[in-house]
Amino acid sequence: MRKNRTTHMMAGILIIVFVAIFVVLTGRFIYIQATGEVNGVSLEEWAEQKRTSSYILPAERGKILDKNGMILAYDRPTYRMYAIIDETYSEDPENPRHVVDVDRTAEELAKVFETEPEVFRDSLQAGLQAEPPRFQVEFGNIGKQLTQKQKEEIEALGLPGIYFDESPMRFYPNGMFASHIIGFARETEIETEDGVKTEVTGIAGMERQMDEYLRGTNGYISYQRDLYNSKLLDPNEIIKEPEHGDDVYLTLDQKIQTLVDEALTTVEKKYDPERMTAVVMHAKTGEVLAMSSRPSYNPNNPANVENWYNDVVSTPIEPGSTVKMFTWAAAIEEGLYDGNELFKSGTYNVNEKIIPIRDVNEGKGWGLISYDEGFERSSNVAASKLVWEKIGTEKFLDYLHAFDVDKKTGIDLPGEVTGEILYNWPREKLTASFGQGSTVTPIQMMKAATSIANDGKMVKPYVISRIVDSTSGEVIEQNKPEVVSEPISKETAEQVRGLLRRAVEGEHATGKRFKLEDYSIGGKTGTAQIVGPDGKYMKGRENMIFSFLGMAPIEDPELVIFVSVQQPNLEIGEYGSMPVSFIVKNVMENSLHYLNIDPDESEVEEIERFEVPDFNGEEPEKIAQSMNENGIKVTVVGEGNTVTQANVEPGDKILPTKHVILVTDEPSMPDVTGWSKREVVQLAEMLDLQLESFGSGFVVLQSVEPNTPLREGSYLGIELLPPNEERDPVEETEENGSTEDEQIDGENENQDETN
């Protein structure tokens, strides 16, 4: 009885326990069924997530283009290769979707990559032998950043289990071209709520400055799928299209930028300077058409970069004598300037407590000369006397402020800094008049110079032309020229431009080497000392910054240019102005031709113009003979009997420098060797030719042989080179620069101009 009672009691306890467990489990099931949650996790959402695949639809990064629409930076697709090795991924054994034959796959891939099969075999075997075996494997760096061509070659092999992920890579088709302005972008890892993601991010230059506009917003696609990743019949597909980045158009002109880069590269090879800068700007709008610095880098592979800074906006230098144009402008604006007034050059001693100011020829000077001649000769004494005796040091400081040489220009480039006006002691106030002690950036000098080029109106420089929606083409933002102030009057600007012309063309000009062939140019040379590590000025004729600030055509400037070359390696008989003048002349001459600026007419104003006769129905040879007799170059296109088109109109009054092109009713290809691009463009427009040009300067090669009959729509390719490109242009400048005045000028420039 005792045993049965115990048995019944234990049985009852077990029944109660089992009932309790049943009630708890049933209650739990009822709760789960009622709420659809487990530990706060929605079963419906969990199931939805498990059977839903989501993929990012990457946004295309916006392009960077020049003012004419030439692409400077864009996303080029690259591919990452991976292999699926899990055989459960293959639904149909006859059409496998995983790697079936490791050895064959490795051998075929090795042929494409020109490497050993073990590179791929080891990765595949390691994935298969892992515990647990991997679903897929990748191939390290060799399988990344593949080109479209490589991808297509691999796909053509028909290897099962080999797949690709597409990702963009930023590409810069022109290499080093304007790299400090464009900058570069790279893939970077960014932490988000969903984990670490890889995005292309701007690192430097415009890529960083305009990253917000360029990057865009990714989209996505999601759908419900089965175990084998195939869409269900009702996949509940959701697609959000990506918002592609905006396109950024710069004010840069690819042709002019190329001229600048090519000139700097030539000088870099010849003289191996420590640093160089060059910037070309539209005189009336402030648009930067070209800007370059050396050392530079290739944004496609920015490795071992010597200089990240854009020196034009980020590196202040002593401007040297280029600042004298503003000293003379201040004196003229104040009504205190008489260009014919004489002063004693050589040495200027204000008082015994101030170190004397000396002219560039060791203080010997040139005796009594006029202030106009003093500007030609770049006299430090003349500049100092103007400030100390006529303008007054405080008033001159007001003008330096008015020209904004103490302020940032506000240019839309990252990293702009400002120089410093050193103006505490009497001698500093004197030396500021000729560019010693105080510092400025090249872009500050360019901004100030626009007031002289633009009849007193100083304009703000800018690099971003407009921002455009890449999808719709709608202009989102548009930059416009901005006049920031008028530090001088129109009359003063005109008078200073006259002085700048004398500084290039005058009898005693220091800038004779900068004279152009077809255009008048005015400007001021500069030779500034460099402060060494010990805080003292460095010695030696090469330890200088040689520069030029000028504008052309000088009567009504279209372009302003600044070039500086620091510490070039000069041979015996070479001067610091040689590398600078080579850059200025090549860039300005060819840029003005490219922009279709009419050659300067100032030297032929006295020559009688020729009136174009009525050539309709006339014989071409008869018209050509009449023009030739008046000194006009004429090219007759074809062997026809009548003139059908011409680049002039009957009644036009033309100068003897004009090249007239007469097209006959039977046109054939003329010999265009030596023609400018503008002349070939005129010919192509008249004959409706498909013109393609390579290079800049003048024609040296044409794709269509002379006397070949031409039809509308015919293709014509031409190659152009700057003048004398086949010879060493710098050595040629040296050979031709043999006049006595130029030799004296060279000696002067290599003296301590700022003392």
Automatic annotation (TrEMBL):
Record keyword Transmembrane helix present: yes
Domain PASTA positions: 665-722
Regions crossing the membrane: 12-31
SUPFAM superfamilies: beta-lactamase/transpeptidase-like, Penicillin binding protein dimerisation domain, Penicillin-binding protein 2x (pbp-2x), c-terminal domain
Signal peptide limits: none
Catalyzed reactions: Preferential cleavage: (Ac)2-L-Lys-D-Ala-|-D-Ala. Also transpeptidation of peptidyl-alanyl moieties that are N-acyl substituents of D-alanine
Keyword Transmembrane: yes
Cross-referenced PROSITE patterns: PASTA
Top enzyme category: hydrolase
Recorded family membership: Belongs to the transpeptidase family.
Protein name per Swiss-Prot or TrEMBL: serine-type D-Ala-D-Ala carboxypeptidase
Organism: Oceanobacillus luteolus
Lineage, broadest ranks: Bacteria, Bacillati, Bacillota, Bacilli, Bacillales
